[in-house]
């Protein structure tokens, strides 16, 4: 490639909104079939503890999305000082309710609540977030179960640009239980060679520079710069941070300096990339749960 060609080259922008819409159409069709078969629509319970503004926005989006595809949602908004026992009692009730096929407890939970105890109390068959240790174990042994929504969405975005991940070098930046670790498991399942890194990794830029696939999920705005990315790599940006601009307004920024990675083969934008896929996969998981435990 000549320098002039290099300068004008742009990466394919992976359109998460469009891919999410296509998945939603399939989900809606499956829901119609469930209603015809069982006479009852899939039900999702969304539990939110406290008033974190970002969580309020996300929960609102999830509820809207349910309505769009025909999932019956019930919303449980609890005050920030809710006792752990009260939350566990609610979860027991939702576990026993045959109209509820999926249960989602929005994280992060307030500090006085043991998140592990709460997530572990959800019936694994209704655990549409895939955070219960049984589902984590199933994912790491490749034996089915419900898969966390964001990692599932990331795989569908990769599938939109690549036929086969076999033998590709994948670098995951971020080691969280809800994103980094499950993505690493899914990539391994597809025969990619996976390196899991994080913000403390020494020589991070040099490791990322070798990658065919880069999954940025560190929650660090514009961490991944242009020179970190190998030409032709596929870059998935899971980061989403609201930052204050000079004009006093806020905007969403990813973990990747999007403007600098135009020599990549394809890259996801923020917003409009992974975020919409997370919600579409939540709906798909709810349908999966409804089909598995009627
Ligand atoms: N139990 C649990 N499950 C989750 O799945 C979960 C959670 N807790 N806690 C918080 C994170 C965050 N999350 C997002 C969902 C949608 C967008 C999304 O739709 N983003 C849009 C725009 C968002 C905006 O404009 O504010 C986009 O990227 O295009 C983002 C982030 C789910 N989470």
TrEMBL record:
Residue numbers binding NADP(+): 174-176, 199, 240
GO biological process terms held by the UniProt record: L-histidine biosynthetic process; methionine biosynthetic process; purine nucleotide biosynthetic process; tetrahydrofolate interconversion
Catalytic reaction equation(s): (6R)-5,10-methylene-5,6,7,8-tetrahydrofolate + NADP(+) = (6R)-5,10-methenyltetrahydrofolate + NADPH; (6R)-5,10-methenyltetrahydrofolate + H2O = (6R)-10-formyltetrahydrofolate + H(+)
Pathway(s) served: One-carbon metabolism; tetrahydrofolate interconversion
EC annotation from Swiss-Prot or TrEMBL: 1.5.1.5, 3.5.4.9
Keyword Zinc belongs to the record: no
Keywords: Amino-acid biosynthesis, Histidine biosynthesis, Hydrolase, Methionine biosynthesis, Multifunctional enzyme, NADP, One-carbon metabolism, Oxidoreductase, Purine biosynthesis
MF (Gene Ontology): methenyltetrahydrofolate cyclohydrolase activity; methylenetetrahydrofolate dehydrogenase (NADP+) activity
Segments crossing the lipid bilayer: none
Residue ranges of every copy of the Tetrahydrofolate dehydrogenase/cyclohydrolase catalytic domain listed in the record: 14-129
GO CC terms in record: cytosol
Keyword Calcium (UniProt): no
Subunit structure: Homodimer.
Family: Belongs to the tetrahydrofolate dehydrogenase/cyclohydrolase family.
Entry function: Catalyzes the oxidation of 5,10-methylenetetrahydrofolate to 5,10-methenyltetrahydrofolate and then the hydrolysis of 5,10-methenyltetrahydrofolate to 10-formyltetrahydrofolate.
Protein name (database record): Bifunctional protein FolD
């Amino acid at each position: 490639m000549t320098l002039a060609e290099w300068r004008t080259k742009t990466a394919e922008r992976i359109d998460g909104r469009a891919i999410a819409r296509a998945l939603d159409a399939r989900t809606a069709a499956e829901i119609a079939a469930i209603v015809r078969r069982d006479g009852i629509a899939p039900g999702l319970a969304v539990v939110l503890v406290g008033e974190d503004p970002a969580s309020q926005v996300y929960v609102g989006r999830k509820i809207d999305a349910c309505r769009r595809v025909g999932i019956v949602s019930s919303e449980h908004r609890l005050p920030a000082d809710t006792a752990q026992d009260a939350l566990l009692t609610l979860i027991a009730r939702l576990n026993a309710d045959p109209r509820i096929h999926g249960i989602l407890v929005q994280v992060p939970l307030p500090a006085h609540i043991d998140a592990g105890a709460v997530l572990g109390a959800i019936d694994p068959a209704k655990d549409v977030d895939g955070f219960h240790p049984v589902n984590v174990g199933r994912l790491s042994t490749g034996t089915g179960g419900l898969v966390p929504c964001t990692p599932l969405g990331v795989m569908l975005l990769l599938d939109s640009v690549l036929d086969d991940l076999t033998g590709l070098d994948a670098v995951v930046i971020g080691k969280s239980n809800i994103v980094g670790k499950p993505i690493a498991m899914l990539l391994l399942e597809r025969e990619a060679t996976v390196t899991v890194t994080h913000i403390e990794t020494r020589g991070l830029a040099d490791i990322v520079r070798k990658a065919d696939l880069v999954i940025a999920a560190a929650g660090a705005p514009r961490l991944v710069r242009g020179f970190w990315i190998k030409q032709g790599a596929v870059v998935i940006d899971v980061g989403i941070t609201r930052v204050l601009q000079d004009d006093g307004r806020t905007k969403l920024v990813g973990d990747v300096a999007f403007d600098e990675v135009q020599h990549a083969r394809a890259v996801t934008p923020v917003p409009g990339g992974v975020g919409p896929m997370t919600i579409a996969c939540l709906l798909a998981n709810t349908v999966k749960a409804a089909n598995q435990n009627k």
